[in-house]
Write a structure and sequence with these properties.
It is found in: Cytoplasm. Catalyzes the conversion of 3-deoxy-D-arabino-heptulosonate 7-phosphate (DAHP) to dehydroquinate (DHQ). Catalyzes the specific phosphorylation of the 3-hydroxyl group of shikimic acid using ATP as a cosubstrate. Helix content is 55%, strand content 11%. It is built from eight helices and five strands; from the N terminus they run βαβαααβαβααβα. α1 crosses α8. It binds shikimate-3-phosphate.
Length: 166
């Protein structure tokens, strides 16, 4: 069992996987993300889990994936955007180097607004994004030691800012 070097949290589309892979390369370690773990455990895509079995089932698979990854993964770890909704996540992350990648609404709608693979934003991306961030912003800030804004930065610049800040 070993602890992650860096845990990335933040909303969908903010670039956790792209930045996470870059960080893992820079640190000579491996990248893991809990969405991929959930997909592997369920044997179907996230959209299929939501539509076939509901969000609650997805959250329960995600809770397990977060617990296992935080306990086992020694490299860079990214959590699904909603993982902070679970009350257990905060305790699991205590003492880890956690970075919140943030972005503003316009950037979010540009990046994920029309992506139907993300079931939480399928109807009215701008309104849904605002509601989602109003509900979650403080949760990201609570679990993370630092916040790195991604607006108008390339993934390489964001990765560098994460390294500078941790
Ligand atoms: C979700 C974010 C997604 C994925 C699922 C739900 C959310 O992860 O876990 O669609 O609730 O914000 P990414 O942040 O990796 O896209």
């Amino acid at each position: 069992m070993s602890a992650p070097l860096i845990v990335l949290v933040g909303p969908m589309g903010v670039g956790k996987s792209t930045v996470g892979e870059l960080l893992a390369d820079r640190l000579g370690t491996t990248y893991r993300d809990t969405d991929a773990d959930v997909v592997a455990a369920a044997g179907k895509s996230i959209a299929e889990i939501f539509f076939d079995e509901g969000e609650e089932r997805f959250r329960s698979l995600e809770r397990r994936a977060v617990r296992d990854a935080v306990a086992e993964h020694p490299g860079v770890l990214a959590l699904g955007g909603g993982a902070v909704l679970d009350g257990t996540t905060r305790g699991l992350l205590a003492g880890h180097r956690v970075v919140y990648l943030s972005m503003d609404v316009d950037e979010a709608v540009r990046r994920v607004g029309l992506n139907t693979a993300r079931p939480l934003l399928a109807v009215n991306p701008r309104r849904q994004w605002r509601e989602l961030m109003d509900a979650r912003r403080h949760l990201y800030e609570d679990v993370a030691g630092v916040t790195v804004a991604t607006d108008e930065r390339t993934p390489e610049e964001v990765a560098q800012a994460v390294l500078d800040a941790t």
